[in-house]
Each structure stands twice: as structure tokens, then as C-alpha cells.
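JOB MANIFEST
job_type = single_chain_structure
chain_count = 1
residues = 142
[input]
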Amino acid sequence: MFCEARGKMKNMITLKKKSDPGKFAAPCTVKGIEFPHALCDTGASVSILPRVMANHLGLKVEPSKESFTFVDCFQRSSGGIVRDLEVHIGNALVQVDFHVLDIKLNWNSSMLLGRAFLSTVGAVCNMQTNQLCLTLIDPHVY
């Protein structure tokens, strides 16, 4: 038994530890406003838009009673939902439901695209090269 286990260990390889690859972001446009670095978050169950940006875009926000708890245990009540907002990304229009939150706005990355969006566009995240491929839009872009 020992010899068998030792034999299997000879076939094992040791992988070099890598650092955090950073964020995945994609450029998109909403109502003529460019978002050069919309964050794509595989850990987010919803897509999020800051209230300031929703107001700036003149969006109709439906009331919502949901609340969110972030990784740092910070809680926020939903400021409502914007349904079926058309996000122009690559050569496609994708309808996305956004939860509007009263959060600090970062103009460079002022929206968060969650798992439903990533599934819709066929996102494939290559952690080794830090590349995001949206296979259903253009498999050669991003």
C-alpha cells in the first residue's frame, strides 16, 4: 500500500503560486453614456447601479424592499430596481436588471455586472491571463 501511494506521488506536479489577477472589466454603453470599466463580478448575484448614475441617466426605478449584505458585512437597502436596461457591449444589446443602491460612485467603474449578465453573454474568465471573453458576443474580444 505504501509503495502504491509513493508511486502515485511521483506523477504529481507542483504548481507555482500566483498572485491575485485583479478585476475583470468590460467597456459598455448605456443610453449613450460610456462605461469604460464596468466591473464583471462572478461573485455578485445581482447587477448594481449607484443611485447617482441612475438619476443621471434618467432611469425609471421601481420600488424594492430588498436589502444587501456585502462581504465586509456592510448592509444597504435597495433603492429600487431598473428592469431590462439595454446595455450595449461589443456588437450586442443586452437587457439587464439593475438594483439601484445608495453607494459611493466611482466614475471609472460605476456599474457592477453580476452572474446573470455574465451567463447571458457566455462569459469565460481566464484567471491565468486575466482575460474576460464574452463568447456569445465576440469570442475574440476583451
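[summary]
The longest strand covers residues 92-101.
The chain has a mean pLDDT of 87.
exit_status = 0
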